[in-house]
Amino acid sequence: MTLSEQLPPGGKGIIATASKDGIPNTAIYAVPHVIDESTVAWGMTRGRTHRNLAVNPNAAYLYMAPGGETRGVRLTLLLKEIKEADPLLSLIRERTREAVSREAGDSICFVAFFAVTESRPLI
User: Fold this and answer.
1) Long-range CB contacts (< 8 A, 24+ apart) of 26-34?
2) Nearest to 72 by CA among 2, 13, 19
3) Domains of the chain and CATH, by start
4) Which residues, including other chains, have CB under 8 Å from residue 86's CB and lie 6 or more apart?
5) 93-119 pLDDT tens trace
6) Contact 86, 39 (CB under 8 A)
7) Neighbouring-strand partners of residue 6
8) What is the pTM of this model?
């Protein structure tokens, strides 16, 4: 099953990061943009997730796919880069403005690209 097939639209996701001192943080995140079979990306605000990634590039993402409590995937991630300007960032802002609100889209400041180092079933 491809990475895109494991991340169908309409589900719910949670990203987990940790500070340099190991203090964990979780946040609700949309399904990522699949760049290729080993790279995903998300838009980010200037929040705790972004601050944690600036000092600790490791993250995990849990995605609960629509259609059943056991459908989904767990991804282990390694931050590749964070960009403040990128065509994908513009697209993410535009889609967020349409789906959520103008303010939500305007609050997205970065696009973060991650290497997928491991993919496991939800259960």
Assistant:
1) 29/61, 31/7, 31/63, 32/7, 32/61, 32/114, 33/88, 33/92, 34/3, 34/4, 34/7
2) 13
3) 3-117 (2.30.110.10)
4) 111
5) 999 999 999 999 999 999 999 999 999
6) no
7) none
8) 0.93
